[in-house]
Design brief:
With about 300 residues, the chain is α/β, with parallel strands linked by helices. Helix content is about 50%, strand content about 10%. A hairpin with a 4-residue loop joins strand 6 and strand 7. It binds zinc ion.
Length: about 300
Amino acid sequence: MKWENNRQSDQIEDRRSDPGGGGLGGLGGGRRVGGRGIGLGTIAVALVAGWIFGINPMTILGVLGGVGDMSAPTEQVQTTQTPTQTPTDDMGRFVASVLGGTEDVWVDVFQQAGAQYQKPRLVLFRGATPTACGTGQSAMGPFYCPGDQKVYIDLSFYDTLRRQLGAPGDFAQAYVIAHEVGHHVQNLMGITDQMEQARRRMSEREYNALSVKLELQADCFAGLWAYHNHKSKAILEPGDVEEALNAAAAIGDDALQRKSQGQVVPDSFTHGTSAQRQRWFNTGLTSGKVQSCDTFKASTL
Ligand SMILES: [Zn+2]
């Protein structure tokens, strides 16, 4: 991926040098509002943690579910704001460039629809950090918090992606960011709110099916970003699309469940199968159109 062509975003909050991501002591009490975080696939990292620590991944998931499941969206609450800064290290610059590319694409797309794109912030952290969705833990994998409109990523996830999930490559890493930014776009479009409303009148099984559509749309939006960013900045190099498709397959629910449980339970899917995730990324990549990413209306996923 030719990421150097992209302008670096100035919306990076670098909390990597914070001890414990800002001090776990300050994470409690009353701050955790504003909806749940939407991850790339919590199960991915839970699974890996399970391998590393030798415990049942489902046990970890139960714990993580508790962390991530701070729904009850009430009023917006101010959370920690770290001043934005431009990273100078290679990984930091890479992330800032990819984010800058997403900003350019989405500003254009929104403008053409007569709307204004509000840029999300991206928080780099290590270990744990306060968010409007509760304590962000690196074990949750990268996620977007609608409550503070920030993408959170501990860059150690990229090691997990490469080593444990077998999805190496800079474009696979860029796809992860573009997917989370896709959740931000959904938030701006009001889709996230509608999901929260729907959640209250649905069974878990029904909600999971809806969640799959949300995730696949974020994958489609990631593809849409790649289409437009390539068109304007020629970012794609040979093998890049394959890297993203490989990553999309690696974090499909069926692939992850097969690894962690040895079986596949479609009712519990929240992110979609490997094939679905690849298909929707590809739909965005080939069409470049928001309308083609309407997974909620699609007759087949
Ligand atoms: Zn997601």
